Amino acid sequence: MEQEMKAFAEWSRRDLMESQAPGFLCTLPREIIGRSLLLESVPNARQLGGYVTKEGKTVRKDALLRTAALGVISREDACTLRDTYRLRLVLDLRSSFERMLFPDGEIEGAENISESLNDEQAMKDLPRPRIPEGGDMRLMSINLASIPEVRKGMPGIYRNIVSSGNIRRTITDCFRRILELEGGTALWHCAQGKDRCGLLSVLMLGALGVPDETILDDFEESNLYYAPFIAQRTAFAASLGFDGETIAAYRGMLGVTRAYMAAAIDLMNSECGSIEYFVRDAIGIGAQGIQELRGHYLV
Question: Which homologous superfamily does the CATH classification assign to the domain defined by 2-297?
Fold first, then answer.
């Protein structure tokens, strides 16, 4: 089992490195590049700065960052986060198992905190990944996408996360730690910077007063960053003869689905009236927390 874990960790590292082709950032649309951190070694690295709120204010640039995992970060990119962005806090939203298997690289001057947006007990009860016959790790996710029960549960993935009391308490701690920075630069990430990281970004933008449609646009932007990777992997699945439903589900696993996050936002709106009020009341940072957050990160 230890050998399999090492093999899986190495595959995870290589998979993340291959998900952003060299020079790919230059091909992104102009407005997307304006929010990119331009990190060559870390995929899906961007910021919330520049978005306009419903009240006409703007999210301050270079202060709220979101990325994929930092386990493959180069020395040059680590220095960029330290010197250009003056990074002070990294919130690692992955499970403790993921964090152990594939630890972040160190960013000098930034505190790295584990804030798992997972049901840790359920993660412990899951069987550890096993190397597929033939050794091709890509088959793990494709085989998972071929299971009807898995496909059936996918639309509710984000609703389930925000419905969990334990995860809500973790999100509360994320906001508390960011508030303690008093305007300092924070970065959060999960494995690919799209699902758990995307959810925290939705909550942050909502708390700052950004319109829901803009928030969903930002969430969906992960598909642009991973477009070549998604195309390559779905073509591989098709070449193996997997059916259309499996390939569609696999594409959803590789990227994000706007409707799934919209369903989570609908839940927040029905429970509290808006994402802002959900963060204020259900997450529990209160009206003062919202006011302080906006004071620090809006201009």
Answer: Protein tyrosine phosphatase superfamily (3.90.190.10)
